[in-house]
Amino acid sequence: MTILYDSPIFGPVHSRRLGVSLGVNLMPADGKICSFDCIYCECGLNSDGRTKSRRPTREEVREGLTKVLRERHEKGEPLDVITFAGNGEPTCHPDFAGIIDDTVEARNRYFPDAKVSVLSNATMLHKTDVFEALKKVDNNIQKLDTIDMAYISKVDKPQSPTYDVTKVIEQLKAFDGKVIIQTMFMRGEGVDNTGEEYVAPWIEAVRHIAPRQVMIYTIDRETPTQGLQKAEPAVLDAICERIKKLNIPCTASY
To answer: At residue 122, what are phi and psi to the nearest 5 degrees?
Structure first.
């Protein structure tokens, strides 16, 4: 069973890592549009989520978000974070930069203490407007599951033939620390990025990027590819400790 989210606003949900989170889905509600096709994605595979609807417009996102924030403010309902996630890669939206500006403005008006977070797969960092917009959010959370291209091709499945993880690492470094690295560790079905041959180069890439935080996690929901397995808590904890030795805060979610 895959999960698709309402559009443009869903939730709030209780996030393992972020707290009471109001979701912003910049993709249609009836399908998935993503620049990756991860075999572990809770929204399913791209081929299973073909949508017949358009993305919400910048105006629809602004109106929907403002309405919910205003209502929650008037009712005194709490909010920790506004999170861009949903049915695919949010930075693929052609008006992503403008939507971020609108979101920051609405947040400042109704919930000035709430954070704005973006969960991204780092495939659009080459676009100047996207890169600059991400610098404006509180939690710029970017995926880096490994630096091994064979693993990335098998598990994350970039949809662009020009995807190059070495370029992505340099783009992540260019945030000058204003970035959070998020990594999925898992096993099964001929894939396993928990071994030293994957972990050591990934840690070196993290050291090079020098993010303000690292979030590592494992499978939490049903996956479209059967046979995938959680990474054990002890494995995640050990990786987390190695990141902390670089003086980079790290959290592990099981």
So the answer is: 70, 20
Query: Model confidence over 29-49: pLDDT tens digits?
Result: 999 999 999 999 999 999 887
Q: In what order do the strands lie in the sheet with 180-184?
A: 9-15, 19-25, 81-85, 115-120, 139-143, 180-184, 213-217, 250-253
Please choose, from the candidates 91, 183, 168, the residue with its C-alpha nearest in 3D space to the C-alpha of residue 137: 91
Average pLDDT of the chain is: 95
CB 183, CB 142: distance < 8 Å: no
Q: Residue 200 has which token pair?
A: 């050591």
Q: Residues 48, 88: contact at Cβ < 8 Å? A: no
* Phi–psi pair at 20, nearest 5 degrees: -75, 110
What number of CA atoms fall less than 13 Å from residue 3's CA on the CB side?
A: 12
pLDDT digits (tens, 9 = 90+) for 40-81: 999 999 988 778 899 999 999 999 999 999 999 999 999 999
Cβ within 8 Å of residue 57, ≥6 positions away = 95
Spatial CB neighbours of 94, under 8 Å, sequence gap ≥ 6:
none
Query: 96 phi and psi, to 5 degrees?
Result: -55, -45
